[in-house]
Design brief:
alpha+beta; four-stranded antiparallel sheet; rbstp2171
């Protein structure tokens, strides 16, 4: 006994659920009208978030600034801490950690308000041969960074400024929507 529904000769009739048309029509109508609060929130959340570059003065080096990208992930911090000895018996070396922060976030070097480029037209960073040469170092991090700043306290202060600019020291305040703003 053959099942007629599944035979090769049986006609194929597509069936559209009634609900799908009404959902599609509702979606189209919603898209054509004013943006909803949900639509605005969705657009806001989908936007890429990136903090703009910041400039850090290098103390004791008149006219020298670093152009820093403060876009730092938690994974990067974890890796830099590990590179600075966080998981060792001696513990993390704060100056090495600071050098890792500076070395990995530096996007360019400015001297007397002009960005400095190497012979090939690339922006300088601590891995640039020109910077390694001027600091007489072979390792960008931590050696070239420490030589560039000359004083370890300045290396640590610069790293703290970078972490501040990246938002790791931001305070997020809770608000009570039931209390109106004070305009007294």
């Amino acid at each position: 006994m053959a099942n007629e529904i599944y035979s090769e000769d049986a006609p194929v009739v597509p069936v559209e659920p009634k609900e799908s048309k009404s959902i599609a029509q509702k979606a189209k109508t919603a898209a054509d009208s004013e943006p909803t609060v949900l639509g605005k929130l969705t657009a806001t959340i989908r936007e890429k978030v990136s903090r703009p570059d910041v400039y850090i003065d290098v103390p004791e080096r008149k006219g020298v600034k670093l152009r820093i990208s403060p876009n730092i992930t938690q994974q990067q911090i974890k890796n830099w801490r590990k590179s600075a000895g966080d998981d060792t018996r001696a513990g993390m070396d704060a100056t090495k950690f600071a050098a890792w922060v500076i070395g990995n976030t530096t996007q360019g070097i400015i001297f007397d308000d002009a960005e400095v480029y190497d012979e090939d037209g690339y922006e300088l960073n601590f891995a640039s041969p020109a910077v390694l040469s001027m600091t007489s170092q072979t390792r960008p991090i931590p050696d070239a960074v420490r030589s560039f700043f000359a004083l370890d306290p300045h290396v640590e202060s610069a790293a703290l400024a970078i972490l501040d600019a990246s938002g790791y020291s931001d305070t997020i305040e809770a608000t009570d929507p039931s209390k109106g703003s004070s305009t007294n």
